[in-house]
Amino acid sequence: MKKIFYKLKDGIIIWIGFSLTTLVIWITYAAVSTVTTGQTLTADMWNNMAWNYDYSTNEVDTGKKWIDWKPIYRKVIHETNIPAATTNYSHGIANIDKIVDTHYIMEQGTSWFYDNSIWYQGRRVGFTTSTIQVISNITADNAWFIMEYTKTTD
To answer: Best label site of 33, 69, 107, 114, fewest CB within 10 Å?
Structure first.
């Protein structure tokens, strides 16, 4: 299938894939800067256009846009030895405008706990523009807090 890329606006792309018997039109958001309208996509270019599912303890531009067209960033904050108490952790992210998505994963021995900002298994996690607050009545060996957000500087 031949794939042709059309860039409508930064972050918004449309691609048309076609063969003799098939026509596919796809509109998506992607971080694309090295491709121009009408260009035939190679396999490498196609793979690099996909949504950014990188999870890193460094800030990552996801390639997605919020409803105000600001870029959405993602960062994973890893903490260890979570106590059975209320604890605040600094996520170290400057200039947060909106927190648009949050998740956490906690590990205790061979048990894993997943949730999204609600009271679950004796834990509650709250995210603010400066801290992550963990309220827990049980301990955890490791915790990974995943934040997606926009920035005031964009």
So the answer is: 33
What 3-state DSSP class applies to 12?
A: strand
The two tokens of residue 11 are 């972050």
* Amino acid identity, position 115: D
What's this model's pTM, rounded to 2 decimal places?
0.65
With 0-12 / 13-18 / 19 or more C-beta atoms within 10 angstroms meaning exposed / middle / buried, residue 72 is: buried
Q: Name the strands in the sheet holding 12-18, side by side, starting at the edge strand that comes first in the sequence.
A: 2-9, 12-18, 23-29
Angstrom CA distances, 38 to 21, 23, 63, stand at: 21, 16, 21
DSSP tag of 116: S
Q: List the domain boundaries for the chain.
A: 2-49, 60-151
Q: Tens digit of pLDDT for each residue in 31-63?
A: 444 455 555 555 555 555 544 567 888 998 888
